[in-house]
Amino acid sequence: MYPSATKLEGEIVAMTAHMLHGEAIATHHPADHACGVITSGGTESLVNPMLVYREWGRDKGITEPEVIIPRSAHVALQKAGHLLGIRVVQAPLRDDWLVDVAWVREQVNANTVAIVGSAGNYPHGLIDPIDELSGIALEHDLGLHVDACLGGFILPWGERLGYPVRTFDFRVPGVTSISADSHKYGYGLKGISVLLYRSDSLRRRQYFNFPEWPGGIYLSPGLAGSRSGGLVAAAWAALVSLGERGYLDAAARIFETAATIRAGIESIPELRIFGDPTFLVAFHSADLDIYHVNDSLIARGWRLNALQLPPGLHFCVTRPNTAAGVAEAFLADLRASVEYAKQPGLGTAKSGALYGLGASPSGNEALDILFTAAVDAMYEVAPEAD
Ligand SMILES: Cc1ncc(COP(=O)(O)O)c(C=O)c1O
After folding, report:
1. Claim to verify: residue 260 and residue 183 sit in the same structural domain
2. Residue 115 belongs to some domain of the structure
3. Among 37, 49, 110, 170, which residue is least crowded by beta carbons within 10 Å?
4. Do both 191 and 252 map to the same domain?
5. Nearest atom within ligand 1 for CA of residue 120
6. At 127, which CATH number?
7. Structural domain for 28, as ranges
8. Which CA distances in Å does 205 have to 35, 210, 217?
9. How many domains does the structure of the chain reveal?
């Protein structure tokens, strides 16, 4: 209907494939080439490939598909499993907080259709050993999806700047799809993500068509129906107006700020960093309740995301955080918040680990409200007499 929107979509896919080394596919899979679609966000960019791998598995005669994901992989994969009837198997993490590849290898069975790794994962911002997962995928002819929703538009620039970024893109021969959200570090508006495949034959498996409908012959490239050309245009505009120089400059500031924050946290004896992070720094504590630390940070105006299993906090560094003095102010408040959390008799922390709430004074307080409502409901709904 709108050729310009299709053109912009094609150009966004092409630029993203270039950034994630789509050209390398020709070296290890000469018959294939990078292609992709635009979706409404990270979640849709995870549900679509899971559909693709289920359908690929079905072609191989697999009727009870399984996908193995790291425990740290985004929960939208669980949602995909729920929607698509795929058994999602959670692989444990090693001491370095990366997926236990040996465990994944052992878990592969006749029903496995795909495995997943993240670059970087939401809780800790870390890059799984995609090169090692690739070996398993190639050996067993499995899909290997890399969830780079969060890191896809920042890690490539960090690598260019010389930071140690483990290779996770199409240079790794077993990678069959990558999701990268333009609405995160791509600086598009919310509602746009890029989903890349190693071949047309994979992408095709997410298409849906239904010729016999009174409304017309229906065909669609994926889960979504109508999509916003305005959001596509905004994502395109971000890419071409910032350009490589703009993304590099932003990444330079973000990696530098994250390094300052990481060093500051490492100097606080009560806190421990999860793994070896770059742009997102997550930390936990064996000595105190990290949610008490968060309560105090909230009171001081900070909004960090809270984690669980184990409890932790993460600071996902974005451009506004790179302003002069922000990292230093945060570290001063963090030190004060650790002192706050060390006080005896604080009781239950107010904040908890509800995903997506940032650090609004919710968490346990929100649970309190829910539980209270549940008990109220029990009293208000008169039980049937026996
Ligand atoms: C690694 C990762 N994957 C997927 C998602 C889901 O993205 P969305 O919220 O756009 O659906 C997120 C969101 O933060 C993420 O960090």
Report:
1. no
2. yes
3. 110
4. no
5. 1
6. 3.40.640.10
7. 3-227
8. 13, 14, 18
9. 2
Q: Whose CA is nearest to atom 9 of ligand 1?
A: 42
Residue 284, phi then psi, degrees to nearest 5: -145, -175
Has this prediction a pTM greater than 0.90? yes
Two tokens, residue 307: 């984690």
Residues with Cβ within 6 A of ligand 1?
A: 41-43, 74, 76, 118, 121-122, 147, 149-150, 181
Ligand 1 atom closest to Cα of 151?
Answer: 1
Q: Along the 386 residues of the chain, how does pLDDT read in single tens digits?
A: 889 999 999 999 999 999 999 999 999 999 999 999 999 999 999 999 999 999 999 999 999 999 999 999 999 999 999 999 999 999 999 999 999 999 999 999 999 999 999 999 999 999 999 999 999 999 999 999 999 999 999 999 999 999 999 999 999 999 999 999 999 999 999 999 999 999 999 999 999 999 999 999 999 999 999 999 999 999 999 999 999 999 999 999 999 999 999 999 999 999 999 999 999 999 999 999 999 999 999 999 999 999 999 999 999 999 999 999 999 999 999 999 999 999 999 999 988 877 766 544 456 677 777 778 888 888 887 666 65
Tokens of 241: 């107006």
The rounded Å distance from CA 213 to ligand 1 centre is: 34
58: tokens are 């079905």
Ligand 1 closest atom vs CA 40: 10
